[in-house]
Amino acid sequence: MANSWRHERWDSLRLLTPNWQSRLPDFPYNGPDPDGYMTSAQVAELISRFAGHRQSPVRTESNVISLRRDGDEYRLDTTTGQLLARTVVIATGACNQATAPLFAAELPTRLEQLTPLEYRNPAQLPEGGVLVVGAAATGVQLATELSKSGHPVILSVGEHVRLPRVYRGLDILWWMEKSGVWDQRYDELDDLQRARRLPSPQLVGSDDRTTLDLNELAAMGVELVGRWATVHDGRALFSGGLRNVCSLADLKMNRLLDLFDEWAASEGRDADIGASERLPPTQAPRSPRLQLDLQSGEIRTVIWATGYRPDYRWIDLPVVDAKGQLRHDGGTVDSPGLYALGLPVLRRRKSTFICGIEDDARDVVDHLAAYLAGDSRQPDYALARD
Question: Quick one: 299 and 238 in the same domain?
Fold first, then answer.
């Protein structure tokens, strides 16, 4: 139970969401530190306690080998036997496999290459420099940890989402929830596919609720370079658009903060919330380096914080597209009686967060129940085909 949180997270990882948002249906957070951030072990323990609270018939140490159609039912072959069901909900998430670009295979063999699923702590790395690729939440957190441990760090920065940890005295995710941004539905978005591909925001869950952005990283000595574009003649080539990428992230952050200010004014909350504020612009280097000799010994390790993808190789059904993504409409998969939960912007912007699963689950289960009842008038979700 909660296997990925027990075995596939680095040691210092904490949730990006404050503890008060770590709530499940009929199971709110009731611990002593509502504004803290759970560790991986605490998340695993939370899930186990919830299963006990709901008295769910959980099968542990039972891996699903395959899912296929068997007449009017689905057959799941597992390591502990076979299951038959009229309906199946796929809740394996979208982070089963870490991604790396194809040119990773062209790197010199002397370089150690790791993904966040393999990284645990700085002690496992050889001495010397580290190139962290990717500047979403994972990338900036690992770059910080490695820099503080004494490793020279270069951070390759592509598209990213910059946010303050605290805004006007309140956690930024309080604003996301209370203002209604997180409740925005997938069928209200202008570009759903882009919304589903957005990197996780540059946040870290820490006791001092610090803001972790590129300015903070540069101040601690992390070298910022552009997006790693390719490898040529043993050299890493970086994009020259770092300053533009940073300016765009600043622009989008300030637009979101403007929206929060408008919401606070409209709700009459300005008097009991701190004053409006803005972070300094990202101070990207004027002339970041555009290449790095991978044979020089300057770096010894590359960490690919370049995102994740789901693993649907066990699904023996024609429901996965050419990019390896599940074909679904708001969680209703393109096969009768098959559903999904926990995917990015499945039905709302908050779909992948612990506190966001309840509303999605309610909608999906409504559809599932109607299907089991043989009701041809299943709930109309005004679904837009992905």
Answer: yes
